[in-house]
Every structure is written in C-alpha cells, then in structure tokens.
Amino acid sequence: MARNWKRVQPTSARQALELCKEHARETRNLSVERIAERMGLPDHFTLYKWLQTGRIPLVMVPAYEQVCGIDLVTRWMASAADKILITVPTGRKTTAQDVLQLQEVLNKATGAIISFHNGNSTAEETIAAIQTGLEGLAWHRGNVSQHHAPQFDLSQE
After folding, report:
1. CA–CA separation, 22 vs 5, rounded Å?
2. What is the Cα–Cα distance from 77 to 85, expressed in whole angstroms?
3. What percent of the chain has pLDDT over 70?
4. CB 35 within 8 A of CB 47
5. pLDDT in tens, 30-84
6. C-alpha span between 46 and 18 (Å, rounded)
7. I need a labelling partner for 155 at 20 to 30 A (CA). Which of 24, 109, 121, 143 fits?
8. What is the pLDDT of residues 70-107, one digit of tens each?
9. What are residue 87's phi and psi, to 5 degrees?
10. CB 68 within 8 A of CB 80
C-alpha cells in the first residue's frame, strides 16, 4: 500500500532528508544520482554525504525539496523550532476524503498522547503526531476562511 505522504512528520533532519529521497523514488522514480543531477550538483557523492550526515547547506534545501517533490526538511525545521507549518489553502471545496483524512490524523494524535502517557510511545513520536494534527486543523481553518475568495492553485503536481 502506498504511503500517505501528507501525514508524514520527520523527527530529525537526517530522517527528513531520507524521507524526501524515498518520496522522490516512489513518486518520481528518481535515484540519488538523478536527484543530484537535477539539483545541479557536480556529483552525487555530495548528496550521499548530506544524506548520511543529515546536514545540507540551507541554500540547497529548496532545490532538494523541489526535485524530490515534498517539503519534509522544511517541515522538520519548523517543528524543531516549535512552529507549525501550514500549506497555504486555496479555498477549494473540501471533499469527504479531506475530512476523513483529518479525522484519521486527529485520532492518531489522540492515540499517541494516550500511548505516551502510558509509557508506550516516545516524546518525539507523540510530538510528530500532534504536529501533523495541528497542521491539518490549521489547513482546514485557512481553507474555510478562503472559501469565499478562492485562490488559483498554481502547484505543479
């Protein structure tokens, strides 16, 4: 079964980089070599080093995320700074699937909180689940507020 990438919340920089790479492989059929090439890197060994260490120059993050097609490094940086990252909603009509996804994310967050307080989950896992739930709620809030003045969806995907 395919992973639901909207619900993924990395808990470290290294994990964020790895998950971006996995997303590029799963959704765009890109190898590390192809990612490095599309980023304009002189060789793929540089990207392998960044993936291994979890360290990437900040100026390269937008290019990496653009090529991989997902903003997991940015999401991790926001979460690490105790910030919530919200994709700007376009004011489109919400589907039943959108609401079911939100319910699933919020149920997972609630379960993570219970699991954490019972000693069965780590703080990092619990925070990631809560972060994903808050981002989902914030998106729906923004979508409702934009509903009467929808924006054009200019995304590439």
Report:
1. 10
2. 9
3. 93
4. yes
5. 999 999 999 999 999 999 999 999 999 999 999 999 999 999 999 999 989 988 7
6. 14
7. 109
8. 999 999 999 899 887 877 777 778 889 999 999 999 99
9. -70, 130
10. no
Rounded CA gap, 113 and 63, in Å? 35
Tokens of 53: 């260490």
pLDDT for res 46: 96
Write the secondary structure of the chain as one string of H (helix), E (strand) and C (coil): CCCCHHHCCCCCHHHHHHHHHHHHHHHHCCCHHHHHHHHCCCCHHHHHHHHHHCCCCHHHHHHHHHHHCCCHHHHHHHHHCCCCCCCCCCCCCCCHHHHHHHHHHHHHHHHHHHHHHCCCCCHHHHHHHHHHHHHHHHHHHHHHHHCCCCCCCCCCC
